[in-house]
Amino acid sequence: MKVHRRNLLAGLALGGAFAEFEAEAADESAMIHDSLYIPKAHLVDDRKFLHDFMSEFSFVDLITATPTLRITHIPCFIDRSKGEYGTVFGHISRNNPQSKTFNGEHPAVIVFRGPHGYISPSWYEKPAMSVPTWNFGVVHASGKLQPVDDKVKLRGLLAKLIDKNEDYSKSTYNFAKLPDSYVGGMLGGIIGFEMQIELLEGKFKLGHERSEADRVRVLEHLKTEKRERSLYDVTADFYKGHPAPPPKA
What structural domains and CATH numbers belong to the chain? Predict the structure, then answer.
């Protein structure tokens, strides 16, 4: 079969352009982009304020999009001193497919979300000129996930996570005293991660751009407004419809 030189050169050029396009697409997929829309009035970039918020509301949504969209809900902690914006640490089940993104290549977003609630127009000084809204505060931390798989480092990660949340004034629990045989088996079922934050976004839609009179009225109503059920209420109601399993023989 006769191959024309012009067609061959055109094919090679097209192939090269396609390969370059694929490389650019791969580079684009690994970039860290803004993860949410933030109007100027709701933008908060005070790093200490954001870190304090992240430390307080540390049960997060870990979100990745490779090879498919995955969201895992986990507790975590932040090391403020590691990296420009800090580093987030946590762990998930080793059986969780999301662990495949712990290779330092794929972008991830960790969402820290605080209290939220409906704001009625009737609370404002001029309700006829207002509409209902929903107030909330969130921080999005973006970066790439690195595995923490070494048993010593993973045990240290767990110890810090427990120490952050355990109320030792009401507890005699001591993770450090658990036998290695037990802890070793537990560590085999999880994989840790660390994510150095490359982008830190704070969105606080709390009506702070409104007049002083409106701010006072919002606070007065929020103080007495019916809130969501507590974890106790949700758990107690759930237990009613889901009896405990019978004791093992």
Answer: 31-150+190-226 (2.30.110.10)
